Amino acid sequence: MQKELTCFKAYDIRGEININIDEAIAYRIGRSVAQHFNAKSIVVAFDARETSPAFSKAVGLGIMDAGSDLIDIGLSGTEEMYWAVSNFSACAGIVVTASHNPINYNGMKIVKSGSKPLDDDEDFLAIKSLAESQNWTGVKKKGSSLDLSNEARAAYVSKTLSFVDINAFKPLKIVVNSGNGAAGPTFDAIEKRLNNNNTQIEFVRVDHNPDSTFPNGIPNPLLPENHHKTADIVKNVGADFGVAFDGDFDRCFFFDETGEFIPGEYLVGLFASIFLAKEPGSTIVHDPRVIWNTQDIVTQIGGKAEQSKTGHAFIKQTMRKHEAIYGGEMSAHHYFRDFAYCDSGMIPWLLIAELISLKGKSLGDLVKDRVSAYPSSGEINFTVKDANSSISSVLENFESQSKVLDEMDGYSLAFDNWRFNLRKSNTEPLVRLNIESRGPIINLQSKVKEISELLNLPE
Questions:
Q1: Which of 118, 150, 182 is where one domain is finished?
Q2: Is 99 a catalytic residue?
């Protein structure tokens, strides 16, 4: 009886090293992806974790043993793998990364041709089954290995910079916190291209070089306890803004000129306005957790707002369906039509630098009116005894009063001046709450307290 590979999770591959993921499993996954797609070529990249180079090598051996060519792009961010798949017309791409998971974890993110997400049943579960069974087909000729790391990086830098007018950049000072993850070398390549264009931007680097020991902790800038490092340096050096990346830099987090953390829901609205100025009437996709600010901005400017279920596969699918120019999630994932509908953590800071240069306003000034107009609680996680019964308790109390009940992703209930989204975690006994309001009429903290009292929290 074949043993189940427990590193296959809901959306990607993640596991504890030498417990449910190792080099042998990495080899099987690489070979399975190649065989499943009958691939001519597959892009492989890896992040800054200690085991990632060896896992990447094992993935590559599996790919070549399946008769497919390996396009090796080396240490890279997830989005560099995405773009290389499209740029090189590869049949699939794999990046070895565990993003912001603990140091004893590793994993993989996989896409197919056109940098499209895997279909759950037809692709992801089929690859899992093949990796478990190891039912390999015969191969006439082993694949070859191509080191295209330089070409991939150059093409990626050109693509990211195509989203902005470099000549519009004014002299700025920007704090960049790479968290000792994969972002540093890629950022340096972008800066070099900017310098070649005589752009007057001063970068203040923090924890810049990749370091597999993560001496400053795993890079996860979403956690409030990790905000102070970037924020303090922004204030100390008088920067125009700060940006911090997670481990594989597909997410980026912003701090304004005062060091204030900018919640993701306001950045989605800000990026929506940027793209609607570039292409009036375009479609913008957003997730369902916090929506009123984004919808108001899009409507005011004459765009079309489309809601999508949370998660990269759903956002990308919705964007392709509506040919949306931009999609955003409050969790700091930003997706771009002209980047193969993929998410990027580098394109956003370039867009913010361009916007500040063109508007002559600070980042704080660009969002403060929106924060006042649509206050948000931010996402609050509650540990509960039973997620379903806890959610039912809240619904029983509020459903009769609500004007809108939306079940696209958890439960969203809207009232005259406030709205909440409540959804359960796929993997933990948690429920996640977001509350927003129209102006300061509603006391958000009182609503948080009211709902938390209904959730049957453990004593």
A1: 150
A2: yes
